Amino acid sequence: RLTSLALHPVIAPELIRGHVHLKCTYSQPPSKPPPQYLVLWSRLSTAGKREQIHRETTPDSFSYVEMDGTNLRLGDTVFCTVTAFTGDTPEQQSLPEESKGFYAGIKFLPESLQIAEDGKEHVLTALSTVPIACPGQDDSCKITLQLNTENLGKNSHSPGPPDIALSACQVDLLQSPCSESSCAAATVTVTAVTDFARDGNRISRVTAEPVARADLLWRTYTPKDVKVTVRDLPTGNCYSFTDPHIITFDGWRYDNYKIGTFLLCQSTSRVFEVHVRQWDCGGHRSATACNCGVAAR
């Protein structure tokens, strides 16, 4: 009886003669006569529609489909459903077993980020779940991703200045042996921009796009965006105004009537300082200085 079989179908990517294939493997039970296998391949498209893409009967304990960019595209989640049988009666057939969904394309880990305006760097990893093919002799075996940031504001409807900064505008996914659902990976760091404004929590996103690929498989593919929520932190204020009166971050007040260039503010923990230049704006009548220039690093 085949009804109680456990076939455990699993999908894994494979590069065959320069083309990306998906291979469904499953357990082969000892039985006489040896069973045949009905393998149904289906995909869940980016639009959320499930459709069958291939069907075959085989004596082998594996089945292949090619990712051709037409019937099977990057961005699809793929399933294989396997039934073993030795005849036409129910006793001679196993129950159909479906594999876990295999996402074919580029993933970002984590899929979303929550960061704060504290200067900390957060690592974002881009990985390809399918092998990187080499289209021609002159092409290196890599996918170059162009990365961009977009500010969506507090509620995704009020864009403004950038809220996040990336350590690189492009990353290369270099061909490597597939292991643990990754066939190529690259990292970039994401940092929240400290804008000194009390503008509340805001939402940005990181977008990626493959650069100048000739093959159809990658040319029409756009990976999913990464949502980044930036948590606003309170900021300190200091002032230098009129002739000039100075108020420090902790509220201490004093005057500086001298003429010259002065170090107004300097951080002890990072490269940040402000210089101010003051000139004589009171003439002979009074010892008054006014700000006439500022430089910040």
Question: Could you please describe the fold and organization of this structure?
Answer:
It holds the Pfam family Ig_VWDE. The chain starts with 9 loop residues before the first strand and ends with a strand. Helix content is 1%, strand content 48%. The strands form 6 sheets. Strands 3, 4, 6, 7 and 8 form a 5-stranded antiparallel beta sheet that branches. A 5-stranded mixed beta sheet has the order 10-17-16-12-14, with no helix packed on it. The protein has one helix at 216-219; strands spanning 10-16, 19-25, 36-44, 50-58, 62-66, 77-85, 97-98, 102-103, 106-109, 112-116, 122-128, 142-153, 164-166, 170-174, 184-192, 202-210, 226-231, 239-241, 245-247, 253-255, 260-266, 273-280, 289-296. The protein has 1 helix and 23 strands. The chain has 3 domains: 10-104, Immunoglobulin-like (Sandwich); 106-231, Sandwich (Immunoglobulin-like), CATH 2.60.40.10; 239-296, no CATH class. The longest helix is centred in the last third of the chain and has 4 residues, at 216-219. Strand 3 and strand 4 form a beta hairpin. It has 297 residues and is an all-beta fold.
